[in-house]
């Protein structure tokens, strides 16, 4: 069973054009045309989501917000970033980071579709009931 924050990540990712989900429970993987752009991961007793990020964003967030972002083991050195899914999660920021990861992965025709499809699909509230 997925946590409410992970279900919210699922909704955000599946709103992106041609996104597919594999895996179950707390470790889903989100891909576009066979290329992974985000994955849920449990680290100890905490839930996180891992995604691609450009190096500047990666450095900035790991340095300035270490309580929320971290370089995941193994893939962090290859540009992947991770965010804790907790009560401090900024869902607007995370949504943008997931879209950026998608843009780094998807073919250009799908990226062009992104603006039209995502706006209408975004939830209006975060998983703990606060306005998004």
UniProtKB/TrEMBL annotation:
Keywords: DNA-binding. SUPFAM superfamilies: YjbR-like (SSF142906). Gene3D superfamilies: 3.90.1150.30. InterPro entries: YjbR-like_sf (IPR038056), YjbR/MT2646/Rv2570-like (IPR058532). One of its GO terms (molecular function) is DNA binding. Pfam families: YjbR. This is Putative DNA-binding protein (MmcQ/YjbR family). It comes from Stackebrandtia endophytica.
